Amino acid sequence: MLWWYEEFCLRLTQGPRFVIRYDYRDSGRSTTYKPGAATYTLTDFAEDALAILDVFSLAKAHFVGFSLGGGIGLLVAVQNPDRVASLTLISTSPVGAYPGEPDLPTMSVEDTEQLGKIFPQNWADRDEVIHFLVGMARLCAGSAQAFDEAEIAAFAGRVFDRSINIQSSMNHGPLAFMRWSRESLPRVEASTLVIHGTDDRMIPYAHGVALSKEIKGARLLTVEGNGHELPHGVWDVVIPAVLGHTSVS
Fold first, then answer.
1. What Rg value do the Cα atoms of the chain yield, rounded?
2. Pairing of the two strands 219-223 and 61-66
């Protein structure tokens, strides 16, 4: 939930839009499993999203997903097209972080090794986890704007404090690295906007290009110099794009 900054969401509400943000399983205050012991699938996450719409008595909604959230939105759009008013896919992929797709590059060996070096030894140590989250954010950052370490550290502290067990968020890894159904993309009926940064090292720009080509009628918004992130510096581009795209019924 916190990864969608409150100020970002408030600017959407001025659209005006009714914004719902929530904690996935194994994040924040949501249902939490022991590290390495979760048995859920991407389908479960898609069903969770629909259950939230049901709670709000919403027949359908505009789905805006970042990274893994894009995979959730895609699955809902394929399996329950009547529930999706539009689809916005930010820094996401036709196949997730799956490394076996020959035409889609994945994170480099160097970045993977660097990520492994900063993994916390003690997930209960707040400072150590903040150091990890800041390091991960630095790897995700593009060249479009300066990296604000103090702001990211403060944010990482809020994420740690909200989490029941932050180590459990690593249970999301299998959902990202298990291949998503690229073959189903032509079945997406929802009006689709793809937003992707040219400096994305986690899910490289080619993934966004592929999405825009393989989903009928999809539009690609390229954000020069942006990484696997949604920093303040791109909000003046991204927010109007989302508002414009979600003006469809």
1. 17
2. unpaired
